[in-house]
Amino acid sequence: MSRADQDNANRKMPSYFDLPPLDVSVAFPQATPASTFPPCVSDYFHLNDLLKPEEQAVRNKVRECMEKEIAPIMTQYWEKAEFPFQVIPKLAALRIAGGTIKGYGCPGFSITGNAVAAAEVARVDASCSTFILVHSSLAMLTIALCGSEAQKQKYLPSLAQLQTIACWALTEPEYGSDASALKTTATKVDGGWIIEGQKRWIGNSTFADLLVIFARNTTTNQINGYIVKKDAPGLTVTKIENKIGLRIVQNGDIVLRKVFVPDDDRIEGVNSFQDTNKVLAVSRVMVAWQPIGISMGIYDMCHRYLKERKQFGAPLAAFQISQQKLVQMLSNVQAMILVGWRLCKLYESGKLTPGRASLGKSWITLRARETAALGRELLGGNGILSDFLVAKAFCDLEPIYTYEGTYDINTLVTGREVTGFASFKPVAQRSRL
After folding, report:
1. How many helices and strands, by DSSP H and E, does the chain display?
2. Which contiguous run of DSSP H or E holds residue 416?
3. Mind listing the pLDDT tens digit for each residue in 362-413?
4. What share of the chain is helix, strand, coil (3-state, %, to 5)?
5. How distant, in Å, are the alpha carbons of 34, 104, 141, 148, 149 from that of 156?
6. Could you give the angle at the alpha carbon of 200 between the alpha carbons of 196 and 202, nearest 5°?
């Protein structure tokens, strides 16, 4: 066959690689994908009864929005690792940004109400939950707890309406768990401060209007806080690529080269790392409720899947092994909710210590990981498809297991509290200091 004949034959052959993939509901009609989100069936112990009517109302409002507006699009944006900016007005309409902050256009929720809102967002999409958490329970809360009255009046109302977006920059390339040793510096000059340094893993940073930056005061050697505008000369933000989890969240590397911050944007209440911990105490409770919500979604998805999917002439839900794994997942969810609820009550009564918050966050994320692994097993081959939620949630739990203190670091925080001994540095190193 001549080259011309071969080319003609190739043109006549169907190119299967050019065909669009089948919609998953067509390709696999035996189970409903997560774009049509399953009803919530995980509250086996009726723990919703622990919530006040206004907290239940917040939960219901957030649940309806997430299932209707976010579930249909979350998988495609997660796969593309892009943020769906069109959902910001929908999230703004929920009026959950600002969480526990009172006044300044913020909702003034109880911490329990704020927690269940975070869980309901995470139940459908963990990335959207992290977007809200960084903006609200870190950046906004820092301004609310530590900012001047002028800063609160100036920034919080637009942040509460998501008209402006914020990020919170503590972690650095060399300092993750050892965040209090950060190297970014702030030097006093006439009328303001010069910020020099780098930050890494900062969620929302690629599109944030305001960046809450923590830097070491070169005069006092203490950690201070600053509000940096996105268009500040010397500020560069680049997206971190190739993440396996929370792919919708836009994490960035930040470089600050002689960035000038006026005195009005120095957060006057952040004068040491202990002031930063005031914010982390609240946000760690919110982070603990993220894996609770994720686990609820995983259970809901598996519950529906097992009843729809048939093998050997019966629904998977009819098999003993499937039921055992499903009940283990359900048990985890009940226990996780109770621990999360207790963390909220401890905070409200002024009894939440760093160790208690750390124990709650570390234990809940551990149980969530187990729940995701069981769910992945139950879905078989479909357990590796993001279309059925579990694979996506499996990956999204990994960064949550790590951020706001890794599992190991959080256990050491609790260990220090219950024993009186700090064990963060190796003994040999401590002896040299």
Report:
1. 15, 12
2. helix 407-419
3. 999 999 999 999 999 999 999 999 999 999 999 999 999 999 889 999 999 9
4. 55, 15, 30
5. 35, 6, 9, 11, 10
6. 105
